[in-house]
Amino acid sequence: MPDGNGTIAVDIDNVTKRYGDFTALRDVSLAIADNEFFTLLGPSGCGKTTLLRCIAGFEDISAGAIRLYGDPIAELPPNRRPVNTVFQQYALFPHMDITRNVMFGLLRLGKSESEARKRAGEVLELVQLTQFATRLPAQLSGGQQQRVALARALAPNPKVLLLDEPLSALDLKLRQAVRLELQQLQHETGITFIFVTHDQEEALTMSDRIAVISDGRVQQVGTARAIYEEPNNKFVADFIGETNLIDVAVAAIDGATATCTLPGGAQFTCPAASGAHSGQGHLSVRPERVSLTDPAQAPLSGTVSRLIYLGTDMHVDVTLADGETVTARVQNSADTTIPEKGQTVGLNFEAGAARLLVD
Amino acid sequence: MAGGLGQGTGKSARTYAGLGVPLILPAWLIIGIFLVVPILIMLVYSFLTKEFRGGVIWEPTLAAYDQFFFDRGLFGDEPPKIEWTYILIFWRSIWQAGLATVLCLLIGFPTAWFIATRPPNSRTIWLFLITVPYWVNLLIRTISMKFLIRDNGPLNQWLLDAGLISEPIHVINTATAVQLGLFYSYLPFMVLPIYAAVERYNFALSEAAADLYASRWVTLTQVIIPSVKPGIIAGCILVFVPSLGAFLAPDLLGGAKNFMIGSLIEEQFKGAAGNWPFGAAAAMILLTMVLIVLIFYARSQARGAR
């Protein structure tokens, strides 16, 4: 929460959403800070869009509470909640020109025609669409429509802006440009952004904090770095970036440190996620933290089963004695020795690079 | 890639354009023989002299139009006065057709909305139910309605038995009965085009409106109705135009006092009392009015598309 002054903008308190027998959200609790760029990240069908729609008011919640700056809003209809939404397919009013689209919310709030027109002009300038003010939505490109949707949602100066996968309809290059624009816009306006995406790169590059959601539950909340480097469970470790999940037998857990036995019998001590328990478990080690060494001195060893050349670096798949595969990402530099396929190699990683997960 | 795709489309469009002429010829022939030629015959007949007991004499005259608009006394030698009889019939027809259109819209829009917002499977059933009455001929349905709404018909009988009324409501042979007949006959023509428009409506627009603080009423009037307007206009034309020329409902339900254009024209071509040029002239005047309505529609569509 970098710019936060400690105020909670949106307080999601034990929210459950059921559709008949299907539970879309289970006891979701999140505290989103004022002025934060907060991302809900997860695979499709995980419940992230449902949560956003519950905040906007398009869905009723089955249990729990949603508070906006302390005021309960779960009972209010969407037109009485001071939040605005940027829709996935933009949902621009096709029969109104760009200015009328942006003015729509302002007029509903009782602003006069001239006030609304003035404010629409300002917002369109902010998103650099001034010269398209009199066009109809169908006459604009996808990227321009996306900016109109943003302008329309920003115009009433909402306390919280909800963004439902707003970049998913854009092509890759535009998506990367708009990412930066969005981030900048959030800084300039100081509005709390709640951003829904299934794209981890988008989440990692833009967000102050990320909530990883799967199966209707919040799996982990934290900064991009915390989520990537200190994943709590198998789902988060596997969903964010690439990782090796190594089966281990956990001998003992002492606070945040676990002692476990690696396949092959070596003893290893590493940090443990809170909630990890002894017995069978999984270690997560990122491929870029695995190095290749002499098999005699390494905690793990196996034979090279596949080599993938990627230019800046190389993926080396090593099959262990028990059949598991561990990938090492080797930097392509002058002093790198590239192993042969079929060669026996040792795999090494520091204690801090590995993490015992909650299964 | 995009260029190649564009070129491909262009080529196939040209190919189809070449095929088009022979393929569309039968359609042009049918439209020509069965639509354009009959209208031209009517146009010519409206400027000819009437033959007693039907038919025409090939002597050009404006008598039919003159008879429609002017009253020159019993022997045709008085100074012309405006003849209100036929103008009144036209006015009554426009009023009845307009009222039927408004009523069909008021009932048809919610009906279409209801059907279009059902799950896809049950939509088919609702649409099927809407079309079921059309398996029976309009004449038979109109006669059935006549029996239903008679003074001693089942509707009045039921209301009497239920104690809701103390004497029969007199509906048959009134303008109300004609209106009822028109409304019943043409309601599906309002429902179906509006249904098609609502089905294509992007419901995210309603959410966007609500998100931007619009009440349900504002969402309906400023977002939904403008979005489905083409369906509403199509439905209004499909109800208004046939209502204007209808003759079954006014004939069977309205009695002598509720004469409409359709009946007027029909009478001119029936039996010995007929007057073909006059009937043709009345039909041409009706056609002109319908065309004016359609031109307005085309204009509004062109504005919307711009």
Short note summarizing the structure:
Chain A is an alpha+beta fold. Chain A has 2 domains: 8-229, Rossmann fold (3-Layer(aba) Sandwich); 242-356, Beta Barrel (OB fold (Dihydrolipoamide Acetyltransferase, E2P)), CATH 2.40.50.140.
What does this structure look like?
- The complex is a heterodimer of chains A (359) and B (306).
- Chain A has helices at residues 48-56, 98-108, 113-126, 142-154, 172-189, 200-206, 224-229, 234-239, and strands spanning 8-19, 22-33, 37-41, 63-68, 71-72, 83-86, 160-164, 192-197, 209-214, 217-222, 244-254, 257-261, 267-271, 279-285, 291-293, 300-309, 313-320, 325-331, 344-348, 354-356.
- With 359 residues, chain A is α+β, with helices and mostly antiparallel strands.
- Chain A has 2 domains: 8-229, Rossmann fold, CATH 3.40.50; 242-356, Beta Barrel (OB fold (Dihydrolipoamide Acetyltransferase, E2P)).
- In chain A, the strands form 4 sheets. In chain A, strands 6-7-8-3-9-10 form a 6-stranded mixed beta sheet, sandwiched between helices. In chain A, strands 13-12-11-14-20 form a 5-stranded antiparallel beta sheet.
- In chain A, a hairpin with a 2-residue loop joins strand 1 and strand 2 (22-33).
- The model of chain A has no long low-confidence stretch (mean pLDDT 91).
- Chain B has 306 residues and is mainly α.
- Chain B has a domain at 85-268: MetI-like (MetI-like fold), CATH 1.10.3720.
- Chain B is 73% helix and 3% strand.
- Chain B has 12 helices and 4 strands.
- Chain B has helices spanning 2-45, 63-69, 84-116, 120-131, 138-149, 154-161, 175-200, 204-211, 216-244, 248-254, 261-268, 276-305; strands spanning 49-50, 56-57, 70-71, 81-82.
- In chain B, the strands form 2 sheets. A two-stranded antiparallel sheet of chain B has the order 1-2.
- Chain B is globular and about 70 Å long.
- The model of chain B is unreliable at 1-10 (pLDDT under 50).
- Chain A binds chain B through residues 56-58, 77-80, 83-85, 87, 89, 91-95, 104-105, 108-109, 152-153, 156, and chain B through 202, 204-205, 207-215, 218, 222-223, 226-227, 229, 304.
